[in-house]
Prior knowledge:
Elements: H1 3-15, H2 18-25, H3 29-43, E1 48-51, E2 54-57, H4 59-83, E3 93-97, H5 104-119, E4 124-128, H6 135-140, E5 147-151, H7 155-164, E6 167-182, E7 201-205, H8 213-222, E8 228-232, H9 237-241, E9 249-253, H10 260-263, E10 268-272, E11 279-287, H11 291-294
Parallel strand pairs: 3-4, 7-8
Antiparallel strand pairs: 1-2, 5-11, 6-9, 6-10, 6-11
Amino acid sequence: xxxxxxxxxxxxxxxxxxxxxxxxxxxxxxxxxxxxxxxxxxxxxxxxxxxxxxxxxxxxxxxxxxxxxxxxxxxxxxxxxxxxxxxxxxxxxxxxxxxxxxxxxxxxxxxxxxxxxxxxxxxxxxxxxxxxxxxxxxxxxxxxxxxxxxxxxxxxxxxxxxxxxxxxxxxxxxxxxxxxxxxxxxxxxxxxxxxxxxxxxxxxxxxxxxxxxxxxxxxxxxxxxxxxxxxxxxxxxxxxxxxxxxxxxxxxxxxxxxxxxxxxxxxxxxxxxxxxxxxxxxxxxxxxxxxxxxxxxxxxxxxxxxxxxxx
Length: 311
């Protein structure tokens, strides 16, 4: 439906005379008649009727005229408001890393982003699949403004380390770590300890699909050995999960085990560590200089903070 046709119909409705309305609109009478006919076809019912040589609005036509008048008035107000705004201004935009995992930490990450958008309605959020080797590299190069990261170790220490390197880290939550391996793997037994991972191939990727690499390395080093990573090229999570070697394992947050990709593979199983099980912490990370732009606080922690697993 042509917006101009609505305005023409309003003029016609005031005159109820095709000649007078066409004159006011500075157009041919035949053109106005054709436009009104187009409105009737688009709406699906007659808007005008002629009786005894006089033209009348139908009930539908009168209702359409009243509503169209309100629409035109709203449009004119909108035009005035837009003209009063500096048209050269560009809405602020942030680029957000799309999480590689679907776990409870990533859920908290999405909730944080929704909170940002609620507090700043003018903020435009663009999601980007990671295209950089490390989170710090992506943030420093401006490829992304906000990223999700997983780390092992005391939360307050992790936050301080981020701050020392010029980053702001917002704590998202904590989740237990588990092993995902083949059902016949030798580590499938009760009482699993972190030390049992020594010399066991641990799957990782050469890109940011492997968000657990830094946390895994810190976990192993804390227990006195270097992880034996097996890096693979993978463009999707599914491709990565299907690339495991017979004697390799994956290390993941326990909530990720609810993923359909995990549950659908009957050849693999979940193995829990003996208590106390190691945990991984999730953070929303940005550059310190972008803190005001994102309006995300850099967290500070003390011994009274509740660092219980989320859920």
